[in-house]
Amino acid sequence: MRTTYDFAPLWRSTIGFDRLFDLVDAAQQQTGSEDNHPPCNVERVGEDRYQISLAVAGFSPDEIEITAEQSVLTVEGRKAEKQQGEFLYQGISSRPFKRQFNLADHVQVKGAAFDNGLLRIELVRELPEAMKPRRISIAGSSAPNVRQIDGQADA
């Protein structure tokens, strides 16, 4: 049984969460119909560091294109047309693929490496200086909340 949610009441009372609602709506529509080719892992390798690993056996680095646009990372693979022999069984897929990953705000792609049929994409979350916590100093006299009860203060 599939459950769908109506976000109309939230649209009336929230501002700036439209991307979140779009992500949830897209996830609902993709459940069960998503093509999981090529298989991948998404790992957290540090507090603000992530790694996506895609199993792209049979593809070479020049047949794979990685694009980061706004908050979407797209990995596309297309085999060059080569005349191959007659297969009795073809278990290694060479069909074109396109995988997309939605990135959170301030997540940047730092690099990619191809090793033993695995494509590894390094991601880092870097907050701008304006968004990082900072310590605020307190200005004022040394004891602003102290009241003098008697006529003279003890020194």
Explain what the structure shows.
It is a single chain. With 155 residues, this protein is mostly beta strands. The protein has 2 helices and 7 strands. The longest helix has 13 residues, at 18-30. The model has no long low-confidence stretch (mean pLDDT 80).
Question: What's the layout of helices and strands?
Answer:
Layout: H1 8-13, H2 18-30, E1 40-46, E2 49-55, E3 64-69, E4 72-77, E5 97-102, E6 107-115, E7 118-125
Antiparallel strand pairs: 1-2, 2-7, 3-4, 4-5, 6-7
Average pLDDT across residues? 80
Number of helices: 2
Q: What is the H/E string?
A: HHEEEEEEE
Content of β-strand: 25-35%
The shape is: elongated
**Number of beta strands:** 7
Q: What's the Cα radius of gyration? A: 27 Å
In terms of structural class, how would the helical and strand content be classed?
A: mainly beta
Helix content: 10-25%
> How is the quaternary structure best described?
single chain
Return residue spans where pLDDT drops below 50 for at least 5 consecutive residues: none
How many angstroms does the end-to-end distance come to?
A: 79 Å
Question: Order of strands in the sheet with the most strands?
Answer: 1-2-7-6
Main beta sheet strand tally, sense and closure: 4 strands, antiparallel
